[in-house]
Design brief:
Length: 213
């Protein structure tokens, strides 16, 4: 998506979402207290680290020794509501303004997770991470991590302005009607990745034969 179009959409979004963000901040304050935001380092384009910020969705509940309880034990009814509605993601709109994120792209992951992906991680980071993406409108929580990666790689290889607009519209539909696992998209991404791996292997084999001669 052209940057000026993205900025125009985001600036309008900041105005439209100002009240929902204030309401969400108040909801977090009442239900979970301070701090309102959760910050964590994620990998951006070219794997450059940046700080991602969300509305906090977990309490600070601790055990008798003062250690934080496991994540599952710190999730509240308020947390589930924020996550299902994706209201916790709203502060990321400012990361788009600063150029760390895009409206559409693979979701930002931890740097160590990207490193574990190897060459796939490098390719995945060829674009800025997004607030929403192909995997998020193709099943999201109904997908395995491997399937999400395959869908992210498919997006990077096939991204276009029209595809980005489609993903934005489908994101709205997902928020209204809920998530649905898209087997057709998963299959297409799996086939595309297998073909890419085959071509890569064939290219390496050709290079080895040239070196041998």
């Amino acid at each position: 998506m052209p940057r000026f179009v993205e900025l125009l959409i985001v600036l309008v979004g900041v105005i439209v979402l100002a009240i929902p963000m204030l309401v969400t901040a108040a909801y977090v304050f009442v239900s979970l207290g301070r701090p309102l935001l959760f910050a964590q380092t994620r990998a951006g384009r070219a794997a450059r680290p940046f700080k991602i910020r969300k509305f906090r969705t977990m309490s600070d509940a601790r055990d008798v020794d003062g250690a934080l309880l496991p994540d599952a034990d710190r999730v509240t009814a308020a947390s589930n509501l924020l996550r299902r509605s994706r209201l916790d993601e709203l502060p990321q709109i400012f990361a788009i303004l600063f150029g760390h994120m895009a409206l559409v792209g693979p979701r930002p992951l931890l740097p160590e997770t990207i490193a574990e992906f190897g060459a796939d991680g490098v390719y995945r980071c060829a674009v800025r991470p997004g607030m929403t993406g192909w995997a998020q409108v193709s099943g999201n929580t109904f997908l395995s991590n491997s399937e999400k990666l395959q869908l992210d790689l498919w997006y990077v290889a096939n991204r276009s302005f029209l595809l980005d607009l489609r993903i934005i519209l489908e994101t709205v539909a997902v928020l209204i009607f809920g998530e649905r696992r898209r087997e057709d998209r998963i299959a297409a991404a799996t086939v595309a990745r297998a073909e890419l791996a085959r071509q890569s292997t064939a290219g390496q084999g050709g290079a080895k034969r040239v070196c041998a001669t």
